[in-house]
Write a structure and sequence with these properties.
This protein has six helices and four strands; from the N terminus they run ααβαβαβαβα. It is α+β, with helices and mostly antiparallel strands. Helix 2 packs antiparallel against helix 4 (96-116).
Length: 182
């Protein structure tokens, strides 16, 4: 196997191995890891290169607890996270699909950067009243969109090796890929 082939195989395995991990320890994440994660977020591509996001990094245990227990919120994993990252989007009413596309792309890149540092991460979502409450807690202006919040941290599982996780069942390529036409 050539060096290039080996490197490609490693990168593909890295991408295939990404999993959402909600079991985190409430301990700080290394500053260099957080810096790298934020740099990857900064360099993430966006529709029309608008970069319509601002990020709120949350370390405060009480704030993580509040965000993780918002009724109808989808972020209970925040309670034990080393840090949370709220993705505050532009709220562009003319192109709301851009925010949706960019938000998904950004959250996946944040997860990949966390995984590169062997940290766990999970995506949570706020909608409706839960989003309004999260905005209130974090001081986000009402005109901005806040629906995604991410938890990042050290995986909380005795002897848990992320590289040895059992593979989740996936549809076969034949079930999802069409050539030329449906």
């Amino acid at each position: 196997m050539t060096d290039v082939t080996s490197k490609v195989a490693e990168q593909i395995e890295f991408l295939r191995g990404l999993r959402q991990i909600r079991q985190l320890k409430p301990e700080p994440i290394p500053a260099d890891a957080l810096r790298d994660i934020l740099e990857v977020a900064r360099w993430t591509g966006s529709a029309r290169n608008i970069q319509p996001w601002e990020l709120i990094v949350i370390h405060d245990r009480a704030t993580l607890q509040k965000l993780g227990t918002i009724p109808d919120g989808r972020g209970p994993h925040l309670v034990n996270a080393g840090a949370g990252i709220a993705l505050v989007m532009s709220g562009d009413l003319e192109h709301p699909d851009f925010d949706t596309y960019d938000e998904g792309r950004l959250s996946e890149r944040i997860m990949l950067a966390a995984e590169a540092h062997e940290l766990g991460s999970a995506i949570g979502w706020f909608k409706g009243g839960a989003s309004d409450e999260a905005k209130r807690i974090l001081g986000v202006p009402s005109v901005r969109l806040l629906r995604t919040i991410m938890s990042i941290g050290v995986v909380d599982a005795e002897g848990y090796d992320k590289r040895q996780r059992p593979a989740q069942p996936r549809k076969s390529l034949a079930d999802i890929v069409h050539q030329e036409r449906w």
